[in-house]
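S., here's the first fold you wanted:
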Amino acid sequence: MSGNTRRPSSARRPSTTNREDFVYQCKAAYLCVVNDTSYNLTEKRQLKTALNQSGRNPSKKNLDKYWRGSTEELTFDDFCDICKQETVASEDDLMKAFHKIDINGDGYISHSELYTVLTTKGEKMSRQEVKDMIAEVDENKDGKLDYKEFCKFLLSTTNDCKKLAKEKLDKRSQKSQPSSARSKDRTSDDSPRTKKNDVPRPSPRATAIEEKVFGPLSTKRIRLPEPRHLKDWDRHHSKGCFFIEDDGDIISHQYSLDLKEDSSVWITIQPLVLHPEEDVPKSPVDTALFVLRDRPDSNGNRLVTFTEQRDQKGKYCVRCDLKRGHYTLVPFTTGCRLKQRTSDPKVETKLIKKDKDDYTLTKSFREVLSDVFEVNDLDSNGLLSRSEFSWYNMRTSGESVGDEEWEVVEENVELKNGELTRAGFIDLNKMEADDQNGDTSDLWVTLQSMGYNKGLVMDEAAPFKLEVYTENSGTFKVKSLSSPGSALEKALCESVINKGDCQKVRGMKDLLIHTYAQDFRTTIVVENKSNSSISLLIDCSGSKNCNSSRNKLEHKIQVAPNSSVVALHVMAQNERLEWIFRCSENIVK
């Protein structure tokens, strides 16, 4: 296992007492996520939560180093190693950081300065997150923060997390039974005693999930229930794209919809085929959408609705009646067909060639740049606005386009009505080749961030187009290019639990398997109502003509107490053929 290269300032070996305390703190944090140190962390978010509970706040960059794309699980020993590398920030560290922001050196930071730093630099926070944090620490509401007090607030929050984790561990230790040597052995072996209401640890067993057979989807003629008089409704539209990150996560454009009054809404989303005359896929990348409230309801749920219907070409739709308010539209793909590449072509396609003293772009590179332009032309007007170019720049370099950068564009390449033309966009890349004296390293970084491999094939991205019709007026716009995170995971679980079939696992009264089967997708959600963490092996290897959202059709998953988890999605590998979903689960000790 590899991790961050940062090291504490002192290289001395810790004393036995300090080491025991360190391991105890790690154990306390670890057991906030799983039920036993013999269990492994199986998801990146579990690692992040455990690190937070230990008082650490890793950056996304560091977290990606600890949990790489190939990582399947981490042991307790791995977690301890990471905690050694990911040091807890000291008051001196925080003070040095704030000194850089405090330009006039008066010991205070204005709200606007803090907003700017925390929402644009490093690990960016949302404006609402920053607003909530300031409201908690700015007691006199004078618009400024005493950053010495602010440092104490941040450190107290860190200490509270560590204290809570240790308190939980102490309570668990008190409930053990030290009256026999066997009980002592269990305590020393980090195996907590099962509570009365916990799920028992049975021997491995298999429970069959009903077999489902689906006919070829591409041969069906499915007419979507488009509303009458749709031409009289307000139409909003945008392109977008799914991108696979280095760690295997999928991000995409997210959208906001603001309704000033109640309205009927019709939404469609479908793959964007760049060259329909030559590369219509046999089985398109699934491109669905979830509608979420900006604020949870009384039950803590944000899901409003999602695209349940799909035609044979891959177009999804939903019609719903929405109350006035703010909504987030979250595109979704299962990962069954959009997967992280395992290797690059052996031969790298040439991007440039030298013509005397000048560099020119190859024909194949120019064609790909034209496609990249098409994907980022979100409003489909044949031009890139500054906003659209900024979204592109965020994806390829991680930075938005400032005034100086846009001035360079305006001064050097072709614009029309203040927007970047396709020819101008290609010329920008030609300028980059010239500036780098023919070195194509940066050009490849851009292409790979847009999902292209060394053969100039887009295999780690999937563009789509979205249309939103509102019977009454509404405001629609691109909100972010990011991962929906836990909000989408919760919405997926809620949708499957509400719509799917449910069955109890044999002999496990508090463990439920929810299966939501449609002609084009089957999703399994595991709901654990017990007070114990449970490990399951979901085995769909008996399925025919199927792809899974996991690396294989057989996947081990750990479900935390009183939680629900998406186990996997399964889709037809070839939609022109019949596909059979057949699955069973095994409880793993």
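And the second, which I think is the more interesting of the pair:
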Amino acid sequence: MQANGNQGGGEAPAAQNGDAMGRDGPAEEPASHGSAPGLGPAAAHSNGMPSSSSSLVPGPGGVSTEQVAYRKKKRLCQSDEDVIRLIGQHLHGLGLNQTVDLLMQESGCHLEHSSATKFRNHVMEGEWEKAENDLNELKALVHSPHVIMKMKFLLLQQKYLEYLEDGKVLEALQVLRCELTPLKYNTERIHILSGYLMCSHTDDLKAKAEWEGKGTVSRSKLLDKLQMYLPPSVMLPPRRLQTLLRQAVELQRDRCLYHNTKLDGNLDSMSLLIDHVCSRCSRDECRAREMVSAVDLLWRKQFPCYTQQILTEHCNEVWFCKFSNDGSKLATGSKDTTVIIWQVDADTHQLRLHKTLDGHAYGVSYLAWSPDDNYLLACGPDDCSELWLWNVQTGELRTKMSQSHEDSLTSVAWNPDGKRFVTGGQRGQFYQCDLEGNLLDSWEGVRVQCLWCLNDGKTVLASDTHQRIRGYNFEDLTDRNIVQEDHPIMSFTVSKNGRLALLNVATQGVHLWDLQDRVLVRKYQGVTQGFYTIHSCFGGNNEDFIASGSEDHKVYIWHKRSELPIAELTGHTRTVNCVSWNMQVPSMMASASDDGTVRIWGPAPVLDNQESEEACSSMDS
């Protein structure tokens, strides 16, 4: 306790000690009962919770602790009281009840209403009749009488299930018929509850009801549900402090431009003593590594910012690269007429050559994995009229499709069912085919630049030579305009949920569109985009990042919400045509370039100072 300015022992005279309510205020006699002034006999303890001790601790000047708390309470603002209650609830959950008692006594606050405390105790002890009576006291403290009925229904449901577990079938039937049914609430649930009467044993009851059984666990879960119906002034929502802290952590992570790990709601996975910040590895950080925070090191372990491997097996320009849906393979297509399938080692971020698929006379400018990753479709440049369908497992060519020698099949997309695909080109071809290359449907006069099938299995998005993206439905033969740009759309890709589209627009760069609202969301800066076809991608654990190649030989990475790049990756010596982010290994990315190489990007290693400076230099813009 504070000495309140009285340094000596014993009791100070009232004239010297003064009064907590003011030096000129009336003096108060020490309390001789178990409640603070102004609190009824029902509030024997200031926290409203069961206490391990009811003794009064003398305060300064012989004044009881509760009187000191009563005076101090007048100086507390609402936010201070809320914080004290939140701390008290958390400490109570840890079993530190004496600490909670002292905190509430000294602050003059109440953890919860005395009626709520009685209600809590009766629920946890399984005294259902008393708990129902407590609801009558709480009725005046809630905003709607309908809430009380919901709470009563939950109580009676627990009572009914516990009777069944105890083998008291007649009592359970009485609760069902005479207490639950007359409420005329949630009759569908009552029908389900009645079916539990047929359960032959306890395990069967627990399994069908998805219930933990009679005891502390199920009653605690019941109490959590009941608390949600009571105003926080009466009883705090369960684990309220943890909820607020979790929300704060999630907000910081959401605002972090570099965060690339799965969203983990467990507060134990991070420190609450510092703000969450992920930052790029800089030379200054490398020179003073003791200053680098743990979250920065975590970011380096997750973000693809460092060249892990350079693949040089292609002997000409590499036009396209794409990771398989399961992340275990990478396919690269080149002007050298080959497709190479690479096997991915997720632990080491190293790739090894798995298969080479050759014979593409015009080169390979576009690749598409089937939904199950068993097949790979390959397209050529503008003057190519053929399309190849490869069996990835065997390395055999299943289908080589060509409708006409005058066709130009430069883009392809799989239907989500994996049994059909669409293909087309700038000479007006737009086909839907099966796996044997048989023509199922066609759309005349559409000069296709790029294609994408939406998850509904019906709609095909196609960018055309009119600087737009239109949606085509092959079932009812309808089409509609979705995106309209002012410059040619060289390529586009769509997010997993089908909501966002990422466009590479000639002379403009990378644009993000909302396909549902049909609005331009953001224009990303930095990239050099002329009239070459460059393919960008979404990436990261939650598709929070965007990456694109560029004609200035760099790979640019942006956070989805930020127009300015957060990383510029150097190393290629000619135009970077395509980037692909491994969606199953979010710390891995590939880039394909006219310099004939494919670079595999991964986390920057934690090295000694000299090596770290060299690693960081590859990231500097």
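Why I say that: The chain is about 25% helix and 25% strand. The CA atoms of residues 135 and 380 lie 73 Å apart.

Talk tomorrow,
H.
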